[in-house]
Amino acid sequence: MSVVLDSSAILAVVFGEDGGETVAPRIAGANVCAVNVAEAASRMIDKGYSQDDTETILSGMGMVVAPFGEADAFSTGFLRDTTRAAGLSLGDRACVALASRRKARVLTADRAWARVDLGVEIEVIR
């Protein structure tokens, strides 16, 4: 089964956080929504990484970045009611929408996802 990475899973690898060791061997070839790449890049900039280093690191991971098109936008928006109580962000919902479309498992560090039936398999990495 293919996997889709949430930004928290990507950042666990980048920042050497717990769970990163679960993601690292699966990151090359993993799917990631362009929205989640933007989210990961934003957090890296917040942590003091340069733009060049951020782009080099994320691009060098070998992830397959999926564009965020109109169908994804609607799918993401329609997940709002289902996920509001668990606090899933726009980026989280974009990840779920991609996983649903690809029929893939999601890797995330966010335990709140396990409280909601998202219609996709969720693997919490820590």
Protein architecture, described:
- This protein is of the alpha/beta class and 126 residues long.
- The chain has a single domain, classed as 3-Layer(aba) Sandwich (Rossmann fold), CATH 3.40.50.1010.
- It is built from 7 helices and 5 strands.
- The strands form 2 sheets. Strands 1-4-5 form a 3-stranded parallel beta sheet. Strands 2-3 form a two-stranded parallel sheet.
- Helix 3 packs across helix 4.
- It is globular, with a radius of gyration of 14 Å.
- Main sheet record: 3 strands, parallel
CATH superfamily: 5'-nuclease
Query: What would you call the quaternary organization?
Result: single chain
Helix percent band = 40-55%
Strand residue percentage: 5-15%
Large-scale geometry: globular
Mean pLDDT: 96
Low-confidence stretches: none
Ends distance: 20 Å
Strand order, largest beta sheet: 1-4-5
**SSE order, as H and E?**
EHHEHHEHHHEE
CATH architecture: 3-Layer(aba) Sandwich
Q: How large is the radius of gyration?
A: 14 Å
- CATH topology grouping: Rossmann fold
Structural class estimated from helices and strands = alpha/beta
State the CATH class: Alpha Beta
User: What's the helix count?
Assistant: 7
